[in-house]
Design a protein that fits this description.
about 20% helix; repeat; Mac_dom; about 210 residues; 22 strands; acyltransferase; single chain; Acetyltransferase; alpha/beta; five-stranded parallel beta sheet; transferase; seven-stranded mixed beta sheet
């Protein structure tokens, strides 16, 4: 089943909507069947796993990889770029769109959230919610247990430290961490020499290569 365009438009409108629509529930159930099949694949069934991922997700780029188990509200709203990698227990609250750039690396137990519920109690009782897109740029690294909240954009090449709570946009080419996540420094000459703290980059990796 292809998720109806009306359902996709509702979820990605940026407006409050009710999530108990019959057509929406039916479409989501079909997506959950694909997700179950993806997580049930054996390590030796990589071809089958990739085929299911391309049915489940909005996009699953060349040589992309997601380590099961994957948890997702939908899957079809997540666009996973070429060569991107996600370790186990990635959770996608992807009622809204999630865009993950090429070569991005996502550590274990990360959560990407596009969706929230109104503060007003009577609206929550009506099972309403809203969704705002999340965009993670090219060649980003999210450390273990990072949570990204609705509407956030993370710029290309940036590194988000483990256990960070990303509540606001993070620019490109920085190291950021914390709860809430804040920019600590720019990526610069120090990183050309040291891969972590005072540990020097060893040959042949000590030769600088340009990053597109």
């Amino acid at each position: 089943m292809t998720v109806p365009q009306r359902v996709l438009d509702t979820m990605n409108s940026g407006l409050i909507y009710a999530c108990d629509d019959e057509e929406m529930i039916k479409a989501q159930q079909e997506q959950m069947e694909l997700l179950y099949d993806f997580n049930a694949t054996r390590p030796s069934q990589m071809t089958q796993r990739i085929e299911i991922a391309r049915q489940l997700l909005g996009e699953f780029g060349e040589d992309a990889y997601i380590e099961p188990p994957l948890h997702a509200n939908w899957g079809c709203n997540t666009y996973f770029g070429a060569y991107a990698y996600a370790n186990f227990n990635l959770t996608l609250v992807d009622d809204g769109e999630v865009h993950i750039g090429e070569h991005t690396m996502i550590g274990p137990n990360c959560t990407i959230v596009t969706t929230g519920h109104p503060i007003r109690p009577d609206l929550r009782e009506k099972i309403t919610q809203y969704s705002l897109p999340v965009t993670i740029g090219r060649n980003v690294w999210l450390g273990a247990n990072v949570t990204v909240l609705p509407g956030v954009t993370i710029g290309d090449n940036s590194v988000i430290g483990a256990c960070s709570l990303v509540t606001k946009d993070i620019p490109a080419n920085v190291v950021a961490f914390g709860q809430p996540c804040k920019v600590y420094r720019e990526i610069g000459e120090h990183d050309d020499v040291y891969y972590w703290r005072d540990r020097m980059i060893n040959p042949p990796y000590d030769q600088r290569h340009s990053v597109a």
